[in-house]
Amino acid sequence: MTSTAPPKSGAREAHPEHLGHVIFIAAAAAMGGFLFGYDSAVINGAVEAIRSRYDIGSAALAQVIAIALIGCAIGAATAGRIADRIGRIRCMQISAVMFTVSAVGSALPFSLYDLAFWRVIGGFAIGMASVIGPAYIAEVAPAAYRGRLGSFQQAAIVIGIAISQLVNWGILNAADGDQRGQIMGLEAWQVMLGVMVVPAVLYGLLSFAIPESPRFLISVGRDERAREVLKEVEGDKIDLDVRVAEIEHAMKSEHKSVFKDLLGGSFFFKPIVWVGIGLSVFQQFVGINVAFYYSSTLWQSVGVDPSESFFYSFTTSIINIIGTVIAMIFVDRIGRKPLALIGSVGMVIGLGLEAWAFSFDLVDGKLPATQGWVALIAAHVFVLFFALSWGVVVWVFLGEMFPNKIRAAALGVAASAQWIANWAITASFPSLADWNLSATYVIYTFFAALSIPFVLKYVKETKGKALEEMG
Predict the structure, then answer these.
(1) Which of 369, 440, 456, 463 is the most exposed place for a label (fewest CB within 10 A)?
(2) CA angle, corner 98, sides to 213 and 86, nearest 5?
(3) What distance in Å separates the CA atoms of residue 296 and residue 292, rounded to the nearest whole number?
(4) Using CA atoms, how far apart are residues 263 and 228, in angstroms rounded to an integer?
């Protein structure tokens, strides 16, 4: 029996003179991840100012903050098809334009309603960037460096979150600690939202400096240009004809999974799909995005000075970076499942201590000193353990755990569940906090604790297994 697969082109490591160029390409594409993180978290600095400016209650405020997630879900759901039609680079450029327009519109809103509209536009750009960046890097990166270059996206996201909090803190200090203080004829919160124009324009400019994906070029019959790009990123020693043949063969042999492939079992979806949905929901139901969307509001609600609250938001985001680096180091060493369990235990401790600290009555508008320090340290502990585990591990699991024939469709359903869960937490927190802040954190602690038996019983380790082994 003869094989229809093309011959292998051998080891495909980028040579040293090409590696710098490949790193530049991956870093430029990861700017979408930076904007993902920046745009997601920058609103943290404007929450209380928006409440004051438009004189709205917690429920309406929550909808303005959370409405961007609707755009995120739509952008993520449509980005793949758009990229297949017009190319990865054009998709990045559309995303950059939408980030820019959203930043300008959010900085200069006429009313609460158009502020919400601009946030949906920004959310659409986030959704696109969340899909296109990793896909493009995976298609361009040489196989020997794909894992490390692929991690640029997650690193860029957490750096974007940190930089947004640092910029917010700097702008607040320039406005003498008043979120509605005047800077350049605008209120401070408007400047915070408008500054995103700078990285958005840079992202757009960088997109003109990097090549289109060889995979897309081959799909539209531009084989010669695909050969040029492959030579740029993989070096002079590869057999370009063989590489093109490999890509063509892979594209032809791919199974285009559809929604109906996921159906089966006793509860509508196949069991493995429910495990993926469960991972996505637990990742959000521990309340992680409260730390990135509302932390300044949270600290101010227990008596922390606004300037200090913005600083604590920045230190939390630095802890997020440190935890992400730890996860990137250990996810292939100790495995996905042990890391998830370690993270769950740490999150239970951090969230439980926060719930305890917030249960005390305020004295002169502030938490008692001991409880205040416990709450602050526990918040950082929570973010650290989330970042070194569930923040990274869930995405690794979702990329590996599904059988080949349903992977794409199952990943889409799990990602959609994640956006919905994110929306539920983001939209509910202000009202829940008004009701009982301590009880709100008890709820998050409960979900962190529940994630432990869920992982032990239903999640299988994927470390060291080929994708073809998943069944």
Answers:
(1) 369
(2) 30
(3) 9
(4) 42
Tell me, rounded to whole angstroms, the distance of Cα 231 from its chain centroid: 31
What is the tens place of the pLDDT at every residue in 124-167?
A: 999 888 888 888 887 887 766 766 777 788 889 889 999 999 99
Instruction: Map tokens 């590489």 to a residue.
Output: 243
Q: Quick one: which of 25, 57, 275 has its CA closest to 138?
A: 25
Chain CA centroid to CA 125, Å: 12
Q: Indicate the CATH number of 16-210 among 1.10.10.10, 1.20.1250.20, 1.10.1740.10, 2.40.50.140.
A: 1.20.1250.20
Class of domain 258-471: mainly alpha
Q: What angle do CA 165, 167, 173 make, to 5 degrees?
A: 105
pLDDT of residue 190 exceeding 90: yes
Per-position DSSP letters for 277-346, written without gaps between them: HHHHHHHHHT-HHHHHHSHHHHHHHTT--HHHHHHHHHHHHHHHHHHHHHHHHHTTTT-HHHHHHHHHHH
Give the domain ranges of the chain: 16-210, 258-471
End-to-end CA distance of the chain: 26
pTM: 0.82
16-210 shares its CATH topology with 258-471 = yes
Q: How far apart are CA 395 and CA 382, in angstroms?
A: 19
CA atoms in the 13 A half-sphere facing the CB of 71:
26
Name the token pair of 172.
Answer: 């607040």
Determine the average pLDDT of the residues in 1-15: 46
Residue 435, classed as helix, strand or coil, is helix
Token output for 242 = 């063989």
Are 140 and 21 within 8 A, CB to CB? no
